[in-house]
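Morning F.,

Quick status update on the modeling queue. The single chain you submitted on Monday has been processed. Sequence for confirmation:
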Amino acid sequence: MKKIFVLSLIGIFLFAGLSLAQSVERIGHVDLSRAFDEYQKTKDFDKALEKKGDVKQEQRETLVKDIRKMRDEVELMNENARKKKEADIESKIHTLQEFDQDAKAELTKERDDMVRDILQEMNTVIQEYGKSEGYSIILNDRVLLYGQDKMDITDEIIKLLNDSYKK
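Structure tokens below.
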């Protein structure tokens, strides 16, 4: 009785394995990090974000110079003027701190929005590629422990992304 049960289980697993193997036609994997980094839209956006960061840094340096200038002027003033100037300096320092926080938050939000948009685009391109090329499964390389090089479709995805971005 046990032998029949064991043989039945083996038969079920073999049949299930065969049917699964028949339903999975093609499997591929994508290195999302590399695709993201090599996507021209990412490169262009990084350059634009860097320019905005440089502008914010110049604005910050102007505020810092003003504070330093005010501190130098304080030493030459009498007691009443010094107290007023020190209050102005504290106000400028507070303004500088708020500027730093706002600039960081603005640039971070812009970067996060860009990353989200690009990842959505990549997901759409990968899904369309998978459907058009007959893939059953396309994996992210981060969950992949091993994959043959012939299953890596990263280059094709990068090419599709960059071709669609140029248009």
